[in-house]
Amino acid sequence: MRRSEAREHLMQMLFEMEVHEDYSQDARDRYETNFMETSGQREYMDRMFNIITEHLKDIDQKLEESSDRWKVYRLAKVDLAILRVAAAELLYMDDIPASVSINEAVELAKKYGTDKSGRFINGVLGKVVKEKNAEN
Questions:
Q1: Residue 74: its pLDDT value, please?
Q2: pLDDT above 70 for 111
Q3: Contact 69, 93 (CB under 8 A)
């Protein structure tokens, strides 16, 4: 499995977890059992799942700060899942270039979101990067 496929699985898993309001290890195991074959990106998947579940409130806060007048609960669940994956990479994984995280998120938005999702996600993530750079 390529990294982009791993991101797609993460997005789908987060979407399902958000719908069921269940971010437990059991929910993750169920998703992986039902939808994933053996992954060549196991380390990435484990690391990202841990980052997202440990820092979900901080990630969501950054997303709200970076999206003009949009609260996380008002976002489309698909867009939210995509944003959470990308924001986790941007904020907590310095070994992944910001441009890669944003590009991958926009591609997922084009595939799964609305006509406006890609542009919205690009704008929000651009602000996340700008704010992160301003803090450093």
A1: 93
A2: yes
A3: no
DSSP 55-115: SHHHHHHHHHHHSTT--GGGS-HHHHHHHHHHHHHHHH-TTS-HHHHHHHHHHHHHHHS-T
Tell me which residue has tokens 């890609």.
118
Q: Which residue has the tokens 């939210």?
A: 80
Q: Residue 42: what residue type? A: R
pLDDT band at 130; cut points 50, 70, 90: very high
Sequence letter at residue 103: N
C-alpha span between 29 and 88 (Å, rounded): 20
Please enumerate in sequence order all residues whose Cβ is within 8 A of that of 20, keeping only pairs 6 or more positions apart, or say none: 27
Give the pLDDT mean for 83-102. Answer: 97
Question: The pTM is what?
Answer: 0.93
Tell me which residue of 111, 61, 115, 114 sits closest to 87, measured CA to CA. Answer: 61
